[in-house]
Write the structure tokens for this entry.
Amino acid sequence: MKSNGQVVPRSTIRHFTLEEARSSDQIALRKAFDDNIVQKIGVPVTESDFNTDYFMPTYDRYDNDHQKGTPDASLEDEVATPEIGDNYLNMEIMLPHGGTLARV
């Protein structure tokens, strides 16, 4: 983002070096940049500006009007099974190692 608030897409960026981060000139430039952004866009929002439900919403448990003959399970009886349909669970692979294939 430029100091006038215009967004410029980049495919390559680099972070400040430790020397640049500590440089009083660079600190002044970053302060001026932040001040310009506040003038153009406004003050940054804080967590207190939002309703707490925005961050951690609560939802009612879905009830599909259980069909006849379907047993009702309590929340404690329900077990998550994320591994169902995972074709790579317990898979063993062979990788090249020293001119042969080795099991990993």
Notes: Residues 1-46 form one domain. The CA atoms of residues 6 and 37 lie 10 Å apart. Strands lie at 94-97, 100-103. The chain has a mean pLDDT of 78.
